[in-house]
Amino acid sequence: MDEQDLRLTVNGAGYAVRCDPATPxxxxxxxxxxxxxxxxxxxxxxxxxxxxxxxxxxxxSCDLPAGAAQGHAVTTVEGLAGRDGAPHPxxxxxxxEQAAQCGYCTSGMIISAVALLAADPSPGEEQVRAALEQxxxxxxxxxxxxxxxxxxxxxxxxxxxxxxDGRARQDRQAAP
Length: 176
Ligand code: FES
Ligand code: FES
What we know:
Ubiquitin-like (UB roll); 2 domains
């Protein structure tokens, strides 16, 4: 174990974490920062349960060394709400469409959907399916999940603000 002091930017806040830089980012998020949104599923970058935004792009955190996240903006599902605390339109659409059963895959699905809608505000069903193909749902809620993402795109097209979408806020620096 080669512990170092890492500086991470997560959900717009700066954190100092002492750990082995090879520690998976997911472990640091969950165990050091108390962010339980990203989940452990496969641990090999294959299921999407642990997805977070890194500089606005969705990727797995279970196979990303925490040291490699330094200098990048990390956003978990907890950081998607707007400055007023209102849920992100994708989060609201998941609730409205009841797009979950057990919910284990939900935060990763939402993260992938947010990344998609930031890049393509009006995707078709095919684009949504492609964007979510790395996210597995063992409950078979895919149809409602896709409906939720399409509903979120419609909401956002009508001017519903998207929240932070993974961009780090610079106005809040906090220690854990
Ligand atoms: S737990 Fe990270 S992709 Fe499955
Ligand atoms: S809702 Fe259970 S894994 Fe997707």
